[in-house]
Specification:
single chain, alpha+beta, Ubiquitin-like (UB roll), Creatine Kinase, Chain A, domain 2, 2 domains, 9-stranded antiparallel sheet, two-stranded antiparallel sheet
Length: about 375
């Protein structure tokens, strides 16, 4: 079994523990040198960081499909204020007091590479070079790797879509939304599983935001929605006078994202490489360079509303990158409980069925959210 947590970059940090050591890990914890972990804020002379906590068993095996008879036990005890899960748990608890649940749907992009005879990295498919986006051949020739879906589905991933993205050897996998904590856990496991399967096939799977300056970078859409205790979408209001179908809570949510967007980039885009994606006006960036984060009906804008029947919600593209820790990005603390957390996302409670947004309606909603007092954000 693994005693595991993630650093500020979302990378899994683990110690392998024999089953016979399970009790010791639960009671005493597995020790880590805190200063060696990104984002812990510890100095070399500080104490060890002990990973221990309560145990929760999932019905599905963490490694089902990868390793027979695997068992998933997630350790979690809110103790360290800098721990990602603790940050998210605090925010989830604030919503729970109102009977609300934050649902998130993640759409990770990643790139596949291999090493040539000289040891240099190159695209996994040498023929995948000209206009590869949504290309059948590029998708088909990587089908051995994309069979990782057979490993993910038995552990609760409802994968409904896979596509080839803009860059050579670049793909996106979409799976159904869940509550914020489960989504964060799933994304952490997805990165681990994708890396291991790629390694078994002689490939390298990279979630790096900009692995190649000549090609499109990897992004990750977030879909966000808040559900009531009765599982209705609190972002929806059919009587919205702007015609957007959004509730006051949804507008406050958008305003909060706009107000806190620049600061939230510290969590959503935590590396220098993240900002190498800012190539103005081209798909090479995954998101065009802008001085400000604004909503709009442009597919590259900071936030959008995905119209999908009465469950329409808010979407904002690629400011959140797969190099980010999903739990920390999901649980970035806010001073206001109205809109709650986070940046860079498409929110939804159901799978997206895209309907073009009226430009005038979006302009009205932008003007309205900009006109709201700061106390609403």
């Amino acid at each position: 079994m693994l005693a595991q947590f993630v650093d500020i970059h979302g990378a899994a940090k683990t110690k392998s523990v024999p089953v016979s050591g399970l009790k010791a890990v639960a009671e005493e914890g597995a020790g880590f040198a805190g200063f060696a972990i990104w984002g812990m804020g510890m100095e070399p002379h500080g104490p060890d960081f002990m990973a221990r906590g309560d145990f929760h068993a999932d019905a599905g095996a963490l490694a089902a499909g990868l390793r027979p008879r695997g068992v998933h036990r997630s350790c979690q005890r809110p103790a360290l204020a800098l721990r990602h899960r603790y940050v998210l748990q605090q925010q989830v608890a604030r919503l729970s007091e109102r009977g609300w649940t934050l649902n998130t749907g993640l759409e990770p992009e990643f790139s596949l590479f291999r090493r040539d005879a000289d040891g240099k990295l190159c695209s996994v498919d040498a023929s995948d070079k000209l206009e590869p986006c949504y290309d059948y051949k590029g998708l088909s020739r990587s089908r051995a790797f994309l069979e990782l879906t057979e490993s993910l589905q038995p552990v609760g991933f409802d994968i409904y879509q896979i596509d080839h993205e803009d860059a050579c050897g670049q793909f996106e996998i979409n799976y159904t939304y869940s509550d914020a904590m489960e989504s964060a856990d799933r994304f952490t496991f997805f990165r681990m599983a994708a890396g291991e399967i790629a390694n078994d096939l002689g490939m390298i799977c990279s979630f790096m935001p900009k692995p190649d300056p000549r090609r499109a970078g990897n992004g990750m859409h977030f879909h966000l929605s808040i559900a009531s205790a009765g599982n209705s979408n609190l972002f929806h209001d059919a009587s919205d006078p702007s015609g957007m179908g959004l509730s006051k809570i949804a507008y406050h949510f958008l305003a909060g994202l706009l107000a806190h967007g620049p600061a939230l980039c510290a969590f959503a885009a935590p590396t220098v490489n993240s900002y190498k994606r800012l190539v103005v006006g081209r798909s090479l960036s995954g998101r065009p360079g802008r001085r400000r984060s604004l909503p709009g009906d442009n597919n590259r804008s900071a936030m959008r509303v995905s119209m999908a029947s009465p469950d329409a919600a808010i979407r904002s593209p690629r400011s959140c990158l797969p190099s980010a820790g999903a739990a920390l990005a999901s649980g970035s603390p806010r001073r206001d409980a109205d809109a709650r957390l986070r940046y860079a996302v498409r929110c939804r409670c159901v799978r997206r069925r895209a309907v073009p947004l009226a430009g005038a309606s979006m302009e009205r909603s932008r003007a309205r959210s900009q006109a709201r007092p700061a106390t609403h954000c």
